[in-house]
Each structure stands twice: as structure tokens, then as C-alpha cells.
Amino acid sequence: MEKPVPWAGFLIFDIHLKRHMEKKKIDFELLIYENINELSQNDQELLEKAKAAMGNAYAPYSKFKVGAAVLLENGEVVIGSNQENASYPSGLCAERVAVFHAGAEYPGVAIISVAIIASSSLHEVAIPAAPCGNCRQSIIEYEQKQKSSISILMGVPNGPVYKCASMSDILPLAFNSSFLSDS
Ligand code: THU
Predict the structure, then answer these.
(1) Which residue in 45, 48, 73, 95 is the catalytic one?
(2) Check whether domain 26-174 has CATH 3.20.20.380, yes or no
(3) How far is CA 44 from the centre of its chain?
(4) How far is the CA of 13 from the centre of ligand 1 (A)?
């Protein structure tokens, strides 16, 4: 009697999976403005507030200063800037300082937009720095909580401005609370 080939089953399973594989392309719209003057009045004002907040950054280690301004649905603007620490991981990014500040001061008030701007005293930052992964995850939590999108404006003092309509645009397939329960 012929001996069964132990891996044959896996091979068939693999081919089967491949035959039914679905390819999905995820893309998003990024608006690129040549400079801050091309923005709407409201967006310009928000980015200017982020720029002012950048002045309060405490970044003695990286020399990379970031400012963030959060526009709430009640019209209030809450700011934040990066706050570093001699124990590096204890520091926090501007975006999280700002959105956590907003959540603490105005619980339950939806966030409309977050403007972010960065500069370095070591070199010229020519294009907008997009939020780090931790900040994307933190901001998307608020999108899910409030069930509405938060637009993200990213700028540099003398250069282009990027805008996307939702944090989920730049954090597709995000982890969220739905994975933690079956309800
Ligand atoms: N930083 C922010 O504030 N936001 C980001 O999205 C990226 C990085 C800060 C953290 C740290 O103080 C410095 O920039 C260099 O990483």
C-alpha cells in the first residue's frame, strides 16, 4: 500500500485558498496645498493655532517641535505640543497631548479637525510630518467613539499642507474596541 504524503492535504488547502483569494486595494484622497494661504479661512486659523502651540513644545532632546490644535464641535480649540522627558518613552507627542486634553476638558464634545505642524532647529522640515502610529490609533479611537470623521491637517512653517478627511484614511484596518467583545 502506498504511504500517504503528509503534506498533500496542506497543499490542496493552500491552492484552494489561493483560488478564492480576494484582492482589495485601499486608497485615500490626500489634498496637497502649496502653502497655508491656499486653505479655507477656518483651516488656516486652526493651523496658525497649532503653530503658536508649537512654540510651547518641550523638545530639548529631539529638537523637533510639534504643535497641534483640535477644533471641537462647540467651536472651542484645544492645543497641545510635544513634551519630552529625560526618560525618552515618558514623553508624549503633540497630537496626543491635544486630543487627551480635549477629552479631559470637553468630554462628549466631538472633534471636527486636528491641525499639526512641526519644525526642527537642526534642519529644515520640508514636507509635513504625518502623525506617528500611536497618535493615529489614539485619534481613531475618538472617531469611533463619536461616530464621525476627524479631518487631519498637516503642515510645516514654510511649505505644503496636507489634508485628509479622516484618520481612518491614514490608518486603514485599525484595531478597535469591536475586537474586544462579540457585541
Ligand atoms: N512627535 C510628535 O509630537 N508627533 C508625532 O506625530 C511624531 C513625533 C514628537 C515626539 C518627540 O518629542 C519628537 O517629535 C521626535 O520624535
Answers:
(1) 95
(2) no
(3) 19
(4) 45
Give CA torsion, residues 181, 176, 70, 31, to 10 deg. Answer: -150
The preferred substitution site among 63, 66, 84 for testing ligand 1, maximizing ligand atoms within 8 Å of CB, is 66
Which strands form 161-164's sheet, in the order they lie side by side? 31-33, 161-164, 151-155, 111-120, 64-72, 77-81
What percent of the chain has pLDDT above 70?
A: 89
Helix (H/G/I), strand (E/B), else coil: 16: helix
Q: Are strands 151-155 and 77-81 parallel, antiparallel or unpaired?
A: unpaired
What pTM was computed for the model? 0.88
Give residue-wise pLDDT tens across range 38-54.
999 999 999 999 999 99
C-alpha distances in Å from residue 7, one per residue of 3, 4, 10, 13, 56 = 12, 9, 5, 10, 62
What single string gives the DSSP state of each residue in 26-62?
Answer: -----EEESSGGGS-HHHHHHHHHHHHHHTT-B-TTT
Instruction: Look at residues 112, 32, 107 and name the one whose alpha carbon lies nearest to residue 69.
Output: 112
Strand partners, 71: 77, 113
Pocket of ligand 1 contains residue 64 by CB under 6 Å: yes
Q: Are 92 and 67 in contact (CB under 8 A)?
A: no
